[in-house]
Amino acid sequence: MTSPLPDGHPQWRPSKALGQNFLVDHGAVRRIVEAAEVDQEDTVLEIGPGKGVLTAALAEKAGQVVALEFDRHLAESLMSDFSGADNVRIIYADALEFPLETLPHPLKVVANLPYSVATPILFRLLENRHCLSRMVLMFQKEVAERILAEPGGRDYGVLSVMVQAFTRPKLEFVLPPDAFRPRPKIDSAVVSFETPSVPRVALVDENAFRRVVKAAFSQRRKTLRNSLKALLGERVEEVLLTVGIDPMRRAETLTLEEFARLSVASR
Ligand code: SAM
After folding, report:
1. Could you tell me which of 37, 38, 42, 31 has the C-alpha nearest to residue 172?
2. Per the count of CB atoms within 10 A, which of 41, 99, 142, 149 is most buried?
3. Which residues pair with 107 in a beta bridge?
4. Does 96 contact ligand 1 (Cβ within 6 A)?
5. How far is the CA of 116 from the centre of ligand 1 (A)?
6. What is this structure's pTM?
7. Confidence category of residue 267, pLDDT binned at 50, 70, 90
8. What is the pLDDT of residues 89-108, one digit of tens each?
9. pLDDT 10s digits, 129-147
10. Whose CA is nearest to atom 8 of ligand 1?
């Protein structure tokens, strides 16, 4: 186990902006590593290692751990803590910028994500999913609910559709604020994602799919006939009817397959 050196650093304080709520529940650390199904064959990418509690547990199981930390003091402290571990590489970097494709792959991604940038990081991982074999990620519970939402509910939106089109997300477990220091105000949830090599629905053009999904949910209280007008213009009703979708339906009622069919017809 690593020592929490930065606490002793005169200038270091946990940063809200960097989402620094550190896991102190060792049972949760074990369950995250188990959910990731890590073995000696694996290279694991950890985003935001913080004080290294998860990093140390991953390093015991994985062939290699690469950890990206954007807090310079924490990164330096981790470099010193793990200097004797030849299967751990700490990189001081912004996970939103770092070129993931330069790392050895396939990668497993394991992270207690900084809440402020969890969604953009997830979208970035989705873009790089060809380099990834499995992901186990912690989010604030409300974001996890949106990721896992089924059609028909308030939580179902762009995030649900884009994540579920390309991965198989599964809720692993929920953690209360007390599992962290400092304590966040809200519950957290750990979600695992299988990353199949092909999308779960038949897509001809991923950009067209993304455009249609975003446009459909841009005014989610409106009917598809209205919300898709800006994207499809006068063709809107014809396109919807061609793929068997009632123009009076709303985006939140469409299944992944229906979005996929719509994206093919919208091109
Ligand atoms: N993994 C540790 C744990 O579970 O205790 C820390 C998790 S804490 C919720 C999020 C971590 O992500 C912090 O260490 C923070 O400094 C780091 N972080 C924030 N933004 C980042 C970014 N853009 N790229 C990489 N790391 C980032």
Report:
1. 31
2. 149
3. 43, 132
4. yes
5. 10
6. 0.94
7. confident
8. 999 999 999 999 999 989 99
9. 999 999 999 999 999 999 9
10. 20
**Atom number in ligand 1 closest to CA 71:** 16
188 CA to middle of ligand 1, Å? Answer: 14
Distance 187 CA to ligand 1 centre (A): 17
Structure tokens at 194: 């299988």
Domains parsed from the chain with CATH numbers? 4-194 (3.40.50.150), 206-265 (1.10.8.100)
Tell the residue nearest (CA) to atom 4 of ligand 1: 23
For residues 25-53, give the mean pLDDT: 98
Pocket test for ligand 1, best of 20, 33, 77, 137 (most atoms within 8 A of CB): 20
Alpha carbon of 42 to those of 59, 105, 126: distances in Å? 10, 9, 19
Give yes or no for a contact between 170 and 228, defined as CB atoms under 8 angstroms apart: no
